[in-house]
Amino acid sequence: MKRVGFVQTNPEFGAVESNLKRALDLASKVESDLLVFPELFNTGYLFLSREEALKLSEGLDGPTIKRLSDFASEHSTAIVAGFPERDGGKVYNSAVAIDIDGDVKGVYRKTHLFYEEKLIFDPGDTGFRVFDLAGMRVGIMICFDWVFPESARSLALSGAQIIAHPSCLVMPYAPKADPVRAFENRVFIILSDRSGVEERGGKKLRYHGMSLISDPKMNILTQAPEEGEHVGIAEIDPKLAEDKRVNELNDIFLDRRPEFYGK
Ligand SMILES: NC(=O)CCCC(N)=O
Predict the structure, then answer these.
(1) How far is it, in rounded angstroms, from Cα 51 to Cα 62?
(2) I want to staple 109 with a disulfide (CB 3.0 to 4.6 A). Which of 13, 92, 140, 239 is the partner?
(3) Short-list 41, 50, 17, 51, CA closest to 211
(4) What is the atom index within ligand 1 of the atom nearest the CA of 112?
(5) Nearest to residue 107, comparing CAs of 32, 57, 45?
(6) Coil, strand or helix: which one is 242?
(7) Distance CA 15, CA 17 (A)
(8) Ligand 1 pocket member 144 (CB < 6 A)
(9) Contact (Cβ atoms closer than 8 angstroms) between residue 75 and residue 102
(10) Distance from Cα 174 to the centre of ligand 1, integer Å
(11) What's the rounded Cα separation, in Å, for the pair 258 and 263?
């Protein structure tokens, strides 16, 4: 069995140090093998320009990743966390995967940018990736990726037992949809959504929280409320995600007929 969880936070835009501190203080209250932090958890979401995103972005050798890596090795907890990633002149809406010894296994760069993110970030170029974290196969999709069924399906076909879903939900659907994505792929999903309201540059965004952990049969094992900062933990058997059978004659992956599925 493994203990996995989400850390739902309400980051203050641009206040990286205090956002990091609050998230890690919350995370240190639990014992877990894997914790998922929200999309852009260290900076906040409501960037007003690409320049602002470049200014607040960091490489894998930056201070945010260092702090997360130190936490991972001190607590033997693998981490998936969303952050604005700088790579040369590019800036991505990314999520880092860090193993229990603090080893930075890599990043996933958000494939499907939402609305004005298209004016801020470069489109992700990693494709959907599965990482070995704490002895589990963990795939990552970021927020709006969930709308495209191909995201979760690609990760499940690549062997993900768990999908980490760091998010800043401005629409209320993902907490209803993620258990379905879990069921139709027979995987666990950890939705780690931020909460709170951001108001800047004449814009206002309200986030939905409702972080959750779903098992492969659509059971919600734990869920946070819409408001506030919360850690949610569930004890799971990742191997349950390897059983894709519906009954003795049907298997959701062996029965696929991609020749009829179009592009
Ligand atoms: N940050 C995002 O990608 C928001 C996407 C829309 C939603 N699913 O709320």
Answers:
(1) 18
(2) 92
(3) 41
(4) 3
(5) 57
(6) helix
(7) 6
(8) yes
(9) no
(10) 8
(11) 9
Q: How many residues does the chain have?
A: 263
Of 215, 177, 216, 204, whose CA–CA distance to 193 is shortest?
177
26 lines ligand 1 (CB under 6 A): no
Three-state DSSP at 135 gives: coil
Among all chains, which residue has been given the structure tokens 């602002």? 52
For 170, the 3-state DSSP assignment is coil
Structure tokens at 107: 């990043």
Among the atoms of ligand 1, which is closest to the Cα of residue 145? 3
Pairing of strands 104-109, 90-98: antiparallel
Q: What is the pLDDT along the chain (263 residues), one digit of tens a residue?
A: 999 999 999 999 999 999 999 999 999 999 999 999 999 999 999 999 999 999 999 999 999 999 999 999 999 999 999 999 999 999 999 999 999 999 999 999 999 999 999 999 999 999 999 999 999 999 999 999 999 999 999 999 999 999 999 999 999 999 999 999 999 999 999 999 999 999 999 999 999 999 999 999 999 999 999 999 999 999 999 999 999 999 999 999 999 999 999 98
Ligand 1 atom with least separation from CA of 45: 1
Which amino acid is residue 203, in one-letter code?
A: K
CA of 114 to the centre of ligand 1 (A): 6
ipTM of predicted complex = 0.92
* Pocket mutation for ligand 1, best pick of 43, 115, 170 (most atoms within 8 Å of C-beta): 170
Active-site residue set: 39, 110, 143
From ligand 1's centre to the CA of 198, what distance in Å?
Answer: 14
